[in-house]
């Protein structure tokens, strides 16, 4: 048995296999791209750290209320004791501030809105005497809100899921414009280039390929 083990030890390769060798980038450009990708991933992770995943309505379920949103509107549902009458509801809305609650009690919502709203296009109603339903119309209808009131927990807007059914109702040109806006917004939130910036990068890469004799070491693709 001792002889067999010695033979086995002699057969053990002393050099590492080629597959175990570290593959190095072919050139400095590739190495720089890898570093940029790693930096973008790290920045993206830092941005989303501490943020919550949105609920089904692309908002958040809080302890005393829940909210959701589309690109155009924000909907809020505030639970109140059964049998509540509308005359006991406190509702005060300004362009950048919302206060909701019941008379004689601390407000349930009272703070600065994430973004401004069109006050004349906002409404509230008391549903079945047990919940207050509020609809806010956004002033800027191109951005997703990270929270309802500043200071509250924020959602990760990268995980927001737009309602594709509404996009299908649009004409081809409008739908294409909206989809481009949504793509660019998501790219920006992730620290990635927009569609226009990507197009410029492609043009520069094509020009570099057509002119290999030129020095592009100092050129930036972004």
Shape: elongated
- Side by side, the strands of the main sheet go 1-2-3-8-7
Give start-end ranges of low-pLDDT stretches.
1-9
The number of helical segments is 5
Cα gyration radius (Å): 28 Å
Q: Outline the biggest β-sheet.
A: 5 strands, antiparallel
Query: N- to C-terminal separation?
Result: 65 Å
What level of helicity do the residues show?
Answer: 25-40%
Mean of residue pLDDT values: 81
Task: Please characterize this protein's 3D structure.
The chain has 222 residues and is an alpha+beta fold. The protein has helices at residues 2-11, 28-48, 164-167, 172-189, 195-210; strands at residues 60-61, 65-69, 73-79, 89-93, 97-102, 109-112, 123-127, 131-137.
Summarize this structure briefly.
This protein is α+β, with helices and mostly antiparallel strands and about 220 residues long. Helix content is about 30%, strand content about 20%.
């Amino acid at each position: 048995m001792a002889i067999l083990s010695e033979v086995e030890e002699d057969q053990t390769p002393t050099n590492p296999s080629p597959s175990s060798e570290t593959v190095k980038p072919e050139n400095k450009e590739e190495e720089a791209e890898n570093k940029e990708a790693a930096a973008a991933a790290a920045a993206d992770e830092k941005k989303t750290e501490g943020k919550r995943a949105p609920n089904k309505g692309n908002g958040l379920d809080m302890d005393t209320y829940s909210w959701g949103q589309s690109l155009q509107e924000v909907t809020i549902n505030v639970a109140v004791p059964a049998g509540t009458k509308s005359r006991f509801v406190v509702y005060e809305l300004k362009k950048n501030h919302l206060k909701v609650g019941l008379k004689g009690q601390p407000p349930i919502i009272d703070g600065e809105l994430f973004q401004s709203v069109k006050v004349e296009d906002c409404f509230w109603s008391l549903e079945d005497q047990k919940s207050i339903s509020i609809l806010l119309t956004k002033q800027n209808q191109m951005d997703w809100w990270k929270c309802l009131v500043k200071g509250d927990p924020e959602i990760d807007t990268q995980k927001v899921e737009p309602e594709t059914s509404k996009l299908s109702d649009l004409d081809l040109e409008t739908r294409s414009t909206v989809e481009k806006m949504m793509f660019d917004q998501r790219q920006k939130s992730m620290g990635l280039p927009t569609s226009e910036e990507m197009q410029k990068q492609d043009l520069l890469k094509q020009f570099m390929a057509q002119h290999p004799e030129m020095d592009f070491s100092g050129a930036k693709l972004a």
